[in-house]
Amino acid sequence: MSGPRTAAGGTGTAGYSDGDWELRLYVTGRSPKCLRATENLRLACEEHLAGRYQIEVVDLLENPRLAADDQILAVPTVVRKLPLPIRKLVGDLSDTDRLLVGLELRPRSAAP
Amino acid sequence: MDNAVTGLTDVAVGPELAKAPTGIVGLDEITGGGLPRDRVTLVAGSAGAGKTLLGLGFLVAGAREYGEPGVLLTFEESTAKVTSDVRSLGFDLDELQQDGLLTVIAFQMEPTEIVSAGEFDLEPLFLTLDEAIGRIGAKRVVLDTVEVLFGALGDDSTVRAELSRMARWLEDRGVTAVVTGERGDKSLTRHGIEEYVSDCVIVLDHRVREGISTRRLRVVKYRGSAHGTNEYPFLISARGFTVLPITSVALNYRASEERLSTGIERLDHILGGGIFRGSTVMVSGTAGTGKTSLGAHLVNASCDRGERALWILFEESPDQVMRNMRSIGLDLRPWLDAGLLCIWAARPSAFGLETHLADLAQLIDQVAPSVAVLDGITSLSRGASDPEVTSMVTRKIDLLKSRGITTLATVLGHGDEMSTMNMSSMADTWLLLRNVETDGERNRLLFVMKSRGSAHSNQVREFVLTDHGIELVDVYVGRAGVLAGSARLAQQAAERDAELRQADDLSRRRRELRRTIAEREAHLAAVQDQLAAERQEVDRLGLREEHQATDAASDRLVMTTRRWADATPSDGGQR
User: Fold this and answer.
1) What pLDDT is attached to residue B571?
2) Closest residue in chain A to residue B149, using alpha carbons only
3) Which residue of A has its CA nearest to B153?
């Protein structure tokens, strides 16, 4: 793995005037958990934020000191940097409900 | 730098077990050299018990003294806060970090911020530690309260598994680690860390009894090594973390043959020439028996020899004692001014017993006294239970003894020998002062209860406070019992009287006899005169008788002749 990878969806969708979502995913190499997390995050974003998100994947194996600097204890961890406030979500994101609630992609109040 | 798989079970145990010294005074003694090297030690304790400090002490000692850099991974506080917290305890973490001897890494847990959604692991912690260990070549690692990870990440079974993995990993990594954990109600730690960190377990305890805090440390487990199993008090002071073993200093002090004067000539004499240098003298007695004055004499004598003295007052202020001692003719001010005397007055209840002991240790270092007087050491018990006080006094005396300091401790006894018995075994010399009340006055008596290593008088002395110091006086021992004070004086006067009277009697009798003799001699002379005269008379009478007989014969002859002139008498002496 080399450097943060960025994936961006389409930009034409209206509705989020306050800008794109910035997500950062911390992983350690290509462990199954990390790969699963990457995939799960991508799927969820495509479904709910198509064209309005960026995912930066940070591999701590390449820069271990980032863990302390960014206060990352566990992997995989996804950090919602924007919109504020910052949210942290730990795990392989296989629990979709928690993923959506944790990132506030689907507010609890909006649940059917 | 290694990832060779070394099994833990086949590591040799026993006396050969390699140890990493903690540099913490006392703890290395209890553990026989430190924590097990390349193993993980669990330090459990409640909040504020001193877990972090023990860990830091271990790291700082490693960095400063043993050439073993260390890593602190804390989950409790920020790096800046840790650094500032321990600065007052003499740890300069910034400097050590700059020198590459220490790395502090802080992870702050804000559980509300983290949501878990699926499987995870703690690999970032491993990476962080691995990087830090590799960067400074660390040999020591402290994980401060990893337990906060429980609950914070949602899945405790994963945290438990990961921490267990971390313990093995640290051991394989070739570092000596300390993991701290919160004390649990039923188990040693709240989340059972002891299950996978089981080579060495130390429990810290902080209890407050009757308003005085006491910290204690216990080595619960030390696999493969003998260790002290008692609860040892420890303290946290400006000198860092100090554990105070009760018995470790015990009986190794050198015994000196040199005698020191107590400042009271007669007392020195009674003790066979003074007290031994480095010995411990206990003076017990009820209130007002002169214990403080006795201590003041020792202090004075020491300063007079040019030796430093430390006078610790548990009951009075220095000014008050100085004034009181002036009244018995001891002016200690010059010694104070000359820097020979250091007086420290502190009510022990103002601090914990440990703090008191730590302060004493510090004072001893600063003053380097040859004599120390602990005045009113039993007032320690006002705030703590008796066994605690006894053990504290034992440690104080141990501390002084181990430094070769001659110590006099005054103990408030109730005249009852048993009440001070547990303390008397520590003392080499035990002087008992007792008030006796007779005829409306109180007098002080001094007994030498024991004096190790010297012949000493078994007699009680009267202890008199004069305006020129303490004097010991022989008491009157006789049919009337032991008499002191006025009673002694009265008895002495009575004896003097009696002696005088007896002397009078004798001379009178002598005079009388002389007179009688003179009379008798005179009488005898008279009798002899008379006798002589009578003898003379007898002689004279005899002579006269002779003369008379002769005269009569001749008379008769004359008469015969005259009568019988012409006839011859028939019966006459006629021839």
Assistant:
1) 53
2) A73
3) A90
